[in-house]
Amino acid sequence: MARPRREPRKDPPPSGGRVRPWMRRLQDWRLLVLGFVVLYFIYIDNLMKVRPDHAFLSLLIVALVLKNAKRFLLDWSPFILLWIAYDFMRGVADDNAGRIHILGPYLFERRLFEPLCGSLTPNDLLLQFQAGLGDAPLRHVLDSLSSGFYAIHMAAPIVLAWIFWSTLKDREIFYRFMLTLCLTTWVSYATYFLYPAAPPWYVRDFGFVQPQAAFKGSGAGNLLHTDKWIGIPLFESVYKHMNPNKFAAIPSLHSAFPLLIYIYGLKKFGRRGIILALYPLGVWWSAVYLDHHYVIDIILAVLYVAACMVVSEKLIFPALYGRKGIFRRILWKQASPD
Length: 338
Description:
This protein is mainly α.
């Protein structure tokens, strides 16, 4: 006897009828993420005003909520936590630091380079060089290149991480880069608490006097020359109104991030990544040329990167993502649908 033919099951159209439970859970999850982002930026805006990198981060999260968002939040959570900590470092921690070290770094720099510079520092020599150029075209070229190199230090690591994670889909190199970058940054944050150091522009503008508790100086250094040339107070606004940490000179994260980009670019791209060496070299030159860092700040940044890379690659990465790592089975499996 033939079985009665079963009609195929018809699902209700997306625009009407009963909403499936998994769709409801997904929508609730997305609303929670969106709500967190909105509340976070309201709080940060009241504390220190929202900056461009906040908007970039929020747009990135919202854009990826529509596809593979859980995987994004899981893998990128260290970066997100790093940005949140960076906000508090710039809005809270820098206002609660102890005595600022002003004379010590200056004297150490001068003694270190005394055989080459006499009683001057490399910053002094570069300032004399700039003064000698006056309004010559070379001065504008150097100002523009230095400002460009120096301004992208926050975006560049995100771009490389995105290339590793999304474009190349190489999650192992992404995790290695992410861990070393985060460790270097956290150790640097701790140093800013323990040893808040004044940059050379502060010595130039205010001498060796301790800053007032609510010091809100410009902090743009010689980036102001670029503002004057383009006719827009771009860098003055960034450094004066967006509340950067003005006494986080040692070590120089501006110098550490480009070095990490170069190292992990070499790891991934081999000889083709050698071209990336122009980036750290350009930033190191810019840091001194713009009077934002002493050379010793850059040297210490290189040492921090070397030490953190050894700890990250030899200890942390194997413990988390190695064969017996606690996150290997969770994070190295294929991304599941949201």
